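Below is how a single chain appears once it has passed through the pipeline. First comes the sequence as given, then the structure the pipeline wrote out for it. We keep one example in the README because the format questions we get most often are answered faster by looking than by reading.
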Amino acid sequence: GKTFAYQPLPRSNRIAIITLSGGAGVMAADACLESGLAIARFEDHTLARLKEKMPFWARPGNPLDVEPLSEIVTQEGAYRLSLDAVLSDPGVDLALVVMSTLRRPRVHADYLLDMVRVHPEKPVAVCIIGEAAIYSQLFQILEEANIPVFISVRRTVASLAALYRYRRFLDSLV
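Resulting structure:
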């Protein structure tokens, strides 16, 4: 559907998961593995870039819980840094962002729009969990910018997995 219309095909199946909720990250990782996507292993420089802005007790990984980062660089800064770091990692082919309905939808949409413009070669899909009115605002802003938005982690993962399966199909024709 819309993910095919909005996003490029991934090079391979290595996915980065960025989330504000550890539980949503685990659900996303399980859904990715069930759908044929591989949880990307971040390169050392990516991990170091993230760790530099985290509290001493936090350890970056994939899924990447941005809550510890948000304690140092704000929630918007945490998402912006995380998305840029993982999309810059050559071991990441696509990204899933799980976010809540934050009170300033335009501000939180802007970092996504910026990062997708900087990394147009990697597909990104978003799952938004939370308040309906703010969801609707974020949905409109992101979808108008060709970033697919879903209300469930599983549907978001399914859309990205379909991109990967289509890539594999096209590669098999060569």
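The chain has seven helices and six strands.

See the next section for the split statistics.
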